[in-house]
Amino acid sequence: MTEFLTSQFGVSIILAGVVFGILQGAVAYCIYFERKIAAWIQDRCGPNRVGPAGLLQPLADGGKMILKEDVIPGHVDKNLFVLAPAIMFIVAFVGFAAIPWGGQLELGGKLVSIQVASPDIGLLYILGVASMGIYGVVLGGWSSNNKYSLFGAIRATAQMLSYEIPMGLCILVIVLTVGAIRLEDIVLPQTAYWSDVIPKWNVFLHPLAFIVLFVTMLAEANRTPFDLAEAEQELVGGFHTEYSALKFGMFFLAEYASMITSSALLAVLFLGGWHLPWIPWAQPEATGIAAVIVKMLVMGGKIAGSLFVMMWLRWTLPRFRFDQLMRLAWGGLIPFTLGLFVLTVGLLYFDKHQSPLWTLGGNAVVLVLTLAVAGLSRRDVTGRPASLPSLEGRSLTHGRLAGDVS
Amino acid sequence: MIRDEDILELEEPKLSAAERLYLPQILGGMQTTMVHLGKTLLANKKMTVQYPEEKRTLRLENYRGIHRLNRDEKGRVACVACFMCATACPAHCIHIEAEESPWDDREKYPAKFDLDELRCIFCGMCEEACPVDAIELTPHYDVVGRSRDEMILDKEELLSIYDKTADVKPRKNPRITGYPEVGNRSEQGPSDEGEGL
Description:
The structure holds 2 protein chains of 2 kinds. By secondary structure, chain A is mainly alpha-helical. Helix content of chain A is about 60%, strand content about 5%. In chain A, the strands form 2 sheets. A two-stranded antiparallel ribbon of chain A has the order 1-2. In chain A, strands 3-4 form a two-stranded antiparallel sheet. The longest helix of chain A has about 35 residues, at about 10-40. By secondary structure, chain B is of the alpha+beta class. Chain B folds into 2 domains: about 15-45; about 65-180, Alpha-Beta Plaits. In chain B, strands 3-4-6 form a 3-stranded antiparallel β-sheet.
């Protein structure tokens, strides 16, 4: 028994249970904090009636979700209708299996990974599983047999397909820089230091790729400003219009779960995973149980920071229009990330891909080139369709942005 | 028919290169929301009133809450049953039955004065229409009832609301009751302000 428990397999099984439990709670409290942050940004209090400071609100919400009537409308494709939230939910949670949560633990003289599974293609696994999330959206929208749901699903599909390209290119930049697609092997090089001070986190090598990856992750998770799939004003509720009770709850939880997966991936790829400089427990050499707990807390802190920025953005930005969304992906992010990709390949050829001076300089060049192209091209970004008549001599108001008024 | 020259077309602003990157503008927006978040969290500047525990200070002068029928200085209903409020009411929620007044300072008085608080839209036009300032809206808004009938207030109930609210919102001065030529206004108008309201 002890032998089983100290083996990698036993640790993986225990960890799967622990991580799943923690994540369920984390997802529930994500919703609580989303509401709290929304309230604070809007000068309100947020949920504060259930328990001290409203902390029991997620339980009350969960109870409500379970007890509500689960309506399956008569006009839906019943099998797919039931399957869609399940796909969404499962897919959102299985991605966690490959995340390295806390380095290695020494158990009975052996080292085991604090990771449910450590496949050599960990990064590809997470990307593949994350892309599966689109099936939940599409099936949900399609089987609902409702034009608003279908519109929402179509938008979500087009959006996810478009944003997966810059996302993949950003990840390729890191894969080329690190030379590994196993997530542990991506974290380990980041625990070293430049001149013993600055940790070799990839964000210091490729800050632009970091920002673009964050943006595409917002789009992948259907978060504002990319939440056209559920634009209430136009589409009622988007792909989950017809869902109620626990099925709706599963869509809701899956959104937050995929936000957490994205954030974890972001932390692993760019922020050094569980590594924090100058804390002895958060170094790869530390393998005790305390070190593992500290590493998991560090990882959790990085994820929480990323989640906070996502929520902060949600309550700051308005939603993109669909053509703007597409233009941003195909006209903006994809050429931009292609530039970064070409830069990385070039640096790799000259073996300068690990040198911050070269990568940062290259990043600056790509940024300046982008600015130059954006400034020189006279194409509108926000866009009045070319099919409409010209405004020459017609317009009475030449509005500028609000800043110019004051 | 809309003529071409009536159409006003607004041109979208041209964006500069930095604006087309979105990021500087987004950071500006994030700064705004963060300032609000910080103020709410640290300086505790919340707009919310925790309603059942806390209440907003009543706006005595102009808040349009539940109605009352004022009493004159002798404790009689001040209404002269002129039907101006019922006529002005856009929701048709006032029902008056007039009878000959038992008092000699006016001809009519309301034998029955029913006001349906569920039909009322609280526009305050009855108050404006009243020539003797008999019907008024009070600052009280937490009106509940367990049936529709309960929410139709009769004359006595409206008068009792006056009794309850007279100390926070006294009747306007000068008081107008009855017809000026009969005398109340000239006798007990602005001259007797000291009489206590």
